[in-house]
Design brief:
Major capsid protein gp5 fold; capsid protein of prophage fold; six-stranded mixed sheet; 305 residues
């Protein structure tokens, strides 16, 4: 079962159209830069989520161990169908003359950017109960000890570096990325300067220098396909009273942590000319798994202060 990021998998595609589309996805999404995907067969993926480890200890001579077993919760993740149809009047392409493919390339790039933003929105905010055609995102999945409140103040509490350190420590692994909005990134930088810490940078998957904290890349979650901020200050505070807060996510991405699933590669289908239209269908059978409950954590109830 192959597991690799979209940027890595794009190197193996022979179809230039497919390669170009797949390369655009991580270029437009902090999530898709780091999230690996398992390629599966069928329409669902089953795995076991370790809930409670078995007990171990020491015993006296001639004494018995107390027999027990760990708690494992079987999980099944269904694939969802994501994509879009590009439809352009053939006349517009023809009137471009020698540059007739430019308008087509531009439309493909726009559709791909919109798809990557839609996936990122579902990755954070997805709720299959409210929207059955999408998968559950991290906001829906993260509960219990992995859900950390910034405080208990109505209207939210300010971010501090100790809160961010605690968020990181809630993971059993070193986080792959910290996801937040641009305001929170500026706040982290401000808090580091105030504490006398040098601003950190690391290279992203394309070699570009980006901000980091404790050596962990800071990924910016931007706007959705409709232009609204995905991690805006519109979440409820820890008391549930006021919708004026945002969240920061710490995520360990990998085959045994937070990982995407897909049935085959993202498949652009150039359907050619139909009546007056040139049509290209871009479709992706994808989903999300979190195979270790301590691979993700969320710090919520952070106010804009």
């Amino acid at each position: 079962m192959a597991t690799m990021t979209l940027a890595e998998s794009a190197k193996y595609y022979q179809n230039p159209l497919q390669q170009g589309i797949v390369q655009l996805f991580p270029a437009n999404s902090a999530v898709l830069q780091y999230l690996p995907f398992k390629t599966i067969t069928g329409n669902a993926y089953s795995y076991n989520l370790e809930e409670t480890p078995p007990s171990v200890g020491f015993r006296a001579v001639n004494a018995e161990y107390t027999a027990d077993q760990g708690v494992i919760n079987p999980q099944t993740e269904s694939l969802k169908i994501g994509g879009g149809l590009i439809k352009i009047d053939r006349a517009l392409i023809a009137m471009q003359g020698a540059n007739g493919t430019d308008i087509l390339s531009e439309q493909i790039a726009m559709k791909t950017r919109a798809m990557s933003r839609r996936f990122e929105t579902a990755f954070i905010k997805g709720n299959s109960t409210a929207t059955p055609e999408e998968f559950d995102g991290l906001e829906t999945r993260i509960t219990g000890t992995q859900l950390q409140a910034a405080g208990s103040t109505v209207g939210g509490d300010a971010l501090t570096l100790p809160l961010l350190d605690e968020l990181i420590d809630r993971l059993d692994f070193t986080p792959t990325v910290l996801l937040m909005n641009k305001t929170m990134r500026r706040k982290v930088n401000s808090l580091m300067r105030a504490a006398g810490q040098a601003q950190e940078t690391v290279s992203d998957v394309f070699g570009k220098q980006i901000p980091a904290y404790a050596g962990i890349p800071i990924g910016i979650v931007g706007k959705d396909a409709a232009g609204a901020e995905i991690l805006d200050f519109n979440e409820k505070d820890a008391t549930g009273a006021a919708a004026a807060c945002t969240s920061i996510y710490a995520i360990s991405m990998g085959a045994d942590g937070c990982c995407g699933i897909q049935n085959g590669a993202m498949n652009p289908d150039d359907q050619g000319n139909s009546e007056i239209w040139r049509k290209i269908l871009v479709e992706w059978y994808c989903g999300l798994t979190v195979q270790n409950g301590h691979a993700v954590a969320r710090l919520h109830g952070i106010k804009n202060a």
